Amino acid sequence: MEAPSSKRFCCSVCVHTVKSIPVIFILCILAWSYYAYVYHLCLSRVTSVELSIPYLLVYHVILVLFLWSYFKTIFTKPSGAPPNFRLPEEVFEEFNKNPIDLSRQSAILRDFAENLPIMTFTNTNDIRFCDKCKIVKPDRSHHCSVCRKCVLKMDHHCPWVNNCVSYSNYKYFILFLAYGLLMCVYVAATTVEYVIKFWDITTDMRIQEGSYKIHIIFLFFIASMFSLSLFSLLAYHIYLVSKNRTTLESFRPPKFLDGSDKNGFNLGCCRNIQEVFGKEVLLWPFPIDTRLGEGVSFPINKTVPEAQSLLFSDVNNQKTSIDFEHYDTSLFTSVLISDDNMSSTDTNAPKYQDLIQI
After folding, report:
1. DSSP 134-196
2. Contact call for residues 133 and 102 (beta carbons, < 8 A)
3. How far apart are CA 158 and CA 135, in angstroms?
4. Measured distance CA(145)–CA(253) in Å, rounded
5. Distance CA 194, CA 204 (A)
6. What is the pLDDT of residue 197?
7. pLDDT tens digits, residue range 27-44?
8. What is the pLDDT, as a whole number, of residue 69?
9. Of 23, 47, 253, 340, which residue is 20 to 30 A from 324 by alpha carbon distance?
């Protein structure tokens, strides 16, 4: 019994080590760049104290914000579906009795999901179900094969943070990209003067020897290259936030009863940003939790047919009542879901009346 257990432990350690290689690589690059910038540039080459102190101050402020955002992205665990989305064992056994009978399985899922805030479905208008996690998938959630769980509002699994970018850490991920880009641009902008001087025959720096030149030149080119990649990635995710889409939804739009709609959750640019960053604008630059909602249910665009309908009769057998409270603007709506069969004291049931308030 000991041998299999020890083998599993060794395999687990190896897998976690391999998964951490991209993170270790980034931290090593960061450690070397700190040494090159602080020691070789600011302390060795910049002779003016009036210049070196501001260089160091600004660099360390950006570095702290970058590391803060990066580690929050890494260590924030992706949220999974609430317990009331999981099929009880007896229901799951009934569901698996005859895997060939798809209509029967669909009926079981409909009965189970009648009190759940489900707004998106499969291409055949069935309930989205994960047989690995044994749960009805909440809207915008997907199963991550790396994390081995269904993740709320999953965007993608990022190897550079060894974590799922999702509802739990999406703000931190965007800030990580933003501060990474800011740091690369700042380093490139403050080192370019010295890189030019190394190649200028009229300056003394060209004929001076020393390894510091190699460090500063490599630092400039690496910062410039990372700036390009981070800019493109950050611009893409800012676009997704403005449209209230995830990376997965940009390739495969969410399916509502009336069809797929890539703008199904688009509430307008301002409110889309608030859904990720919160209402307190002063807190947006800091990697602290200011997101809105609970990640299970989301308000939908008014143009989606569900926002204009009072019943989900095709899916919930005319048992679930869905009311929609329209705000003054025509771009979005807040979804209010209630059911006569639900008890107000049921602690396991989601609070449908407290969906995202924008």
Report:
1. TEEPPTT-EEETTTTEEETT--EEETTTTEEESTTTHHHHHHHHHHHHHHHHHHHHHHHHHHH
2. no
3. 24
4. 20
5. 11
6. 80
7. 999 999 999 999 999 988
8. 98
9. 253
Q: How far apart are CA 153 and CA 120, in angstroms?
A: 12
For residue 54, give the H/E element and its range: helix 49-75
Residues 140, 153: contact at Cβ < 8 Å? yes
Contact predicate 297/139, CB 8 Å? yes
Question: Rounded to 5 degrees, what angle do the CA atoms 320, 131, 133 make?
Answer: 90
Q: Is 330 helix (H, G, I), strand (E, B) or coil?
A: coil
Structure tokens at 171: 């703000």
Active-site residue among 42, 130, 144, 158? 158
Tell me phi and psi for residue 233, to 5 degrees: -70, -45
State both tokens at 299. Answer: 């308000």
Question: Would you state the pLDDT for residue 15?
Answer: 79
The pLDDT tens digits of the residues spanning 78-126 come to 999 999 999 999 888 888 887 777 888 899 999 999 889 999 999 888 9
Q: Which of 23, 17, 37, 18 is nearest to 70 (CA)?
A: 23
pTM comes to 0.81
The pLDDT, as a whole number, for residue 4 is 63
Q: Residues of the chain with pLDDT > 90: what percent?
A: 57
- φ, ψ of residue 196 in degrees (nearest 5): -65, -40
What CA–CA distance (Å, rounded) separates 242 from 98?
Answer: 44
Cα–chain center distance at 139: 15
Total residue count of the chain as it appears in this document: 358
Active site residue 28: no
Indicate the pLDDT class of residue 321, thresholds 50, 70 and 90.
Answer: very low
Cβ-based neighbour number of residue 338 at 10 Å: 13
Token pair 């998106």: residue = 120
Smallest CA-to-CA distance from 52 within 63, 64, 65, 37 is with 37
